[in-house]
Amino acid sequence: YFIQPEQFSADHVKISGDDAHHLIRVMRAKAGDRVIVSDGALQEALVVIRTLEGGEVDAEIEERLPMDREPSVDVWIAQSLPKGDKMELVIQKGTEIGAARFIPFSSERTVVQWDAKKEGKRLDRWQKIAKEAAEQAHRNRIPAVDAVRNWKGLMELAAAADAAWFCYEKQDAQELRALIRSALLKSATAGQGLEAGADKSGAPGQERLKLLLIVGPEGGFTEREAALAEEAGCRAVSLGKRILRTETAAMVGLTCILYEAGEMG
Ligand code: SAM
Q1: What is the pTM of this model?
Q2: What sequence ranges are listed for the domain Ribosomal RNA small subunit methyltransferase E PUA-like (predicted)?
């Protein structure tokens, strides 16, 4: 369970709100049960429930757990809005694998008609999916889910990343592995981010490498978009010879990056 840092005291934690409700009503927790709590940043502990009263759970810290299950690089997945509930799949699986941030966007061939009036509700749901997947994967951070961007907003974000790659199934796309290796190497020599297999905690104050992976919609990117992305400094990358569904492409790209960064075991 994720709890606010102030809910941790030296030897106790308080769990309230939805999480307490989930523990009491759904999990039917009792005094003496053990759960793992995290403040999503610095503290994680195995706690023993002592009381469940008035919608609040009080638990005693039994053991502080060593942490940091976060990847040494931040992978931001920009996903062109897919059909149906595939965005949920991308967020859920991407969170388990280790994405740091999700950026839904609309592009020329995006099929989904985005209803701006429902955006708040959708974002809440996506953020909730990220939270639950982060809990299940025992992550220390809940990935952010951004509001839907247009192309211009996406390119602005690309400029803020250390490297931005757009997945392009056309022949002139570069091999993803080569780009990942060169970005990791560059950051290692600059003392930023981490080399594969190196200390994963990162020195305090050290910025993580931010890698933006942009995935197109069911119908792919138009040539115009590919040209605009290149102009904005993004590089076209290939995920192999086979054409993947948009949601598969996001997962494969993310996994390849984290594999090269030494994060997949
Ligand atoms: N335009 C294609 C078509 O209709 O034949 C397919 C688009 S594909 C289903 C959806 C998105 O997944 C693409 O825009 C691209 O970002 C990504 N993608 C799928 N396979 C890929 C591959 N082999 N290399 C790079 N990107 C890929």
Answers
A1: 0.78
A2: 15-62
Q: Is 87 left (phi over 0), alpha (psi -120 to 50) or beta?
A: alpha
Sheet of 73-80: strands edge to edge?
144-145, 101-105, 73-80, 209-215, 163-167, 235-238, 174-175
The DSSP H or E segment spanning 215 is strand 209-215
**Tens-digit pLDDT profile for residues 238-253:** 999 999 999 999 999 9
What domains are there in the chain, each with its CATH number? 5-64 (2.40.240.20), 73-260 (3.40.1280.10)
d(CA 6, ligand 1 centre) in Å: 45
Q: How far apart, in whole angstroms, are the C-alpha atoms of residue 260 and residue 210? A: 14
Nearest atom within ligand 1 for CA of residue 166: 16
Q: What is the ipTM of this complex?
A: 0.98
Return the pLDDT at 119. Answer: 87
